[in-house]
Amino acid sequence: MGALARALLLPLLAQWLLRAAPAPAPAPFTLPLRVASASSRGAAPTPGPGPPAEPRADGLALALEPAGGAANFLAMVDNLQGDSGRGYYLEMLIGTPPQKLQILVDTGSSNFAVAGAPHPYVDSYFDTGRSSTYRPKGFDVTVKYTQGSWTGFVGEDVVTIPKGFNSSFLVNIATIFESENFFLPGIKWNGILGLAYASLAKPSSSLETFFDSLVAQAKIPNVFSMQMCGAGLPVAGSGTNGGSLVLGGIEPTLYKGDIWYTPIKEEWYYQIEILKLEIGGQSLNLDCREYNADKAIVDSGTTLLRLPQKVFDAVVEAVARTSLLYIQPMMGAGLNYECYRFGISPSTNALVIGATVMEGFYVVFDRARKRVGFAASPCAEIAGAPVSEISGPFSTEDIASNCVPALPLSEPILWIVSYTLMSVCGIILLILIILLLLPFRCRHLPPDPEVVNDESSLVRHRWK
Questions:
Q1: What is the pLDDT of residue 273?
Q2: Residue 223 in contact with residue 367, Cβ under 8 Å?
Q3: What does the alpha-carbon distance between residue 339 and residue 319 come to, in Å, rounded to a whole number?
Q4: pLDDT value at position 442?
Q5: Pairing of β 351-353 and β 296-298
Q6: Is 5 exposed, middle or buried (0-12, 13-18, 19+ CB in 10 A)?
């Protein structure tokens, strides 16, 4: 099983490419990951009164209902609303007295921020002047995303998550006073909860993230899991398909079968390793490093499955070649056609497993053991038929041992390199200034006939 257990098949149905098929078809789209082994949930203990559930040996906690503990995992089931087109959001109470806001759950960023002023596209905002527990930190922060950006004041305040926690926690929070293409028409959330690692936090990794604060104060395991239930449903609907965000554990009723884990390659985004892509059972036959250029991440804040341009072009060509999808122009006006959206888009800097893929699975972000897990989701069904499946293991003998390109230098290392180069440049500049001044001090000395004075070679004639 050694080589066979190194990879995971995540077949994604044609429903994700074009949700027009009237009946489920054999899974034509597979997304293999490198994995260690499947983790069986075993027999799930019966929820009920008793002492708080102890973390399991693998760093996870079953979503039992602890008596007297800080977290009530069962209450977290069905605590999300939304869909992949507008995002999935969680209800939070912020400040004293509490102000209720809906917060977008984003595993592709690390800042916790809420609207801090009125905006045409949000129905409420956090008024810091009304909270007696709010404390400003005296600096601003700007965060840019693939689409949109915002700038906000950084402070701290108490936050309560009504569905799951019976106490409040002191966390860092940014109140947005300026934004561009961040709040959009039709959204039903007014803030963002970044659940990625602290290395992505702005303005620096020293700003403790929401989840790190929650783990420390609530004494929960360093893991969370998500189920988003919009698979196969139109994103133009009510926007309340729902889902679950379990902070601190996993809930056995939210998945079927085993959880297959793949290692987190780098702790900034939830970066994983894609081994290959298949369309209709046929591999795209690209170098596996193309799939991971320059990274492959799991990001609930991105709607589509985003592919590097070369991979995207190969996918479109393979889809047309295997006749899984026919794209024809629609001529004329007033024709009663249903329109469908292509669930894949090109990307310039990453392969992003977005919400349209995550909706097919129960996804476990096991930070304690540096891995991401995937399991079949019971709510990812259409007319009783599943729209996703997991299978494996399979052979990876034809795949390179490392499909991840060399990572760019992280921000702290870049700062160290920058300061080192500045110091070296300062020393060189000082030496040059001394060299420039020395000839003037020595010009009254008697010339030495043995010395060749070629002034054209002096640094002062070349320095600008």
A1: 93
A2: yes
A3: 18
A4: 47
A5: parallel
A6: middle
Does residue 83 have an active-site annotation? no
Quote the strand ranges of 339-383, DSSP E: 344-347, 351-353, 361-366, 371-376, 381-382
CB-based burial, 329-341: b 16+ in 10 Å, e otherwise: eeeeeeeeeeeeb
The stretches in the chain having pLDDT less than 50 are: 1-27, 40, 42-61, 63-68, 441-443, 445, 449-464
- The predicted structure's pLDDT at residue 397: 73
Distance between CA atoms of 357 and 354, rounded to whole angstroms?
Answer: 6
Are the beta carbons of 118 and 131 closer than 8 angstroms? no
Cβ-proximal residues to 456 (8 Å cutoff; 6+ apart), any chain: none
pLDDT reported for residue 51: 36
pLDDT of residue 86: 83
pLDDT at 323: 59
Q: From the candidates 83, 212, 299, 366, which is the catalytic residue?
A: 299
Six-digit token string for 309: 């341009």
Q: How far is Cα 263 from Cα 309, in angstroms, rounded to an integer?
A: 25
Angle at 456 between CA 453 and CA 461, to 5 degrees: 120
Listed in sequence order, the residues at least 6 apart from 388 whose beta carbon sits closer than 8 Å to its beta carbon are: 10, 11, 12, 13, 27, 231, 360, 361, 376, 377, 380
Q: Are 71 and 78 in contact (CB under 8 A)?
A: no
Tokens 């193309």, residue located: 290
What are the backbone angles phi and psi of residue 63, rounded to the nearest 5°? Answer: -80, 70
Q: Is residue 225 a contact partner of residue 39, using CB atoms and an 8 Å limit? A: no
Give the active site residue among 106, 157, 212, 366: 106
Which has the closest alpha carbon to 227: 215, 238, 242, 237?
A: 242
Distance CA 301, CA 293 (A): 20
106 is catalytic: yes
Q: Where are the beta strands (DSSP E) in 183-263?
A: 191-194, 223-228, 243-247, 256-263
The pLDDT tens digits for 324-379 are 555 555 555 555 666 666 788 999 889 999 998 999 899 999 999 999 999 999 98
Q: What is the predicted pLDDT for the residue at 370?
A: 96
Tokens standing for residue 164: 């799951």
| One-letter amino acid of 115 | A
Give me the pLDDT at residue 237, please. 54
The rounded distance, in Å, linking the Cα atoms of 175 and 125 is 9
pLDDT of residue 48: 33
pLDDT for residue 329: 52
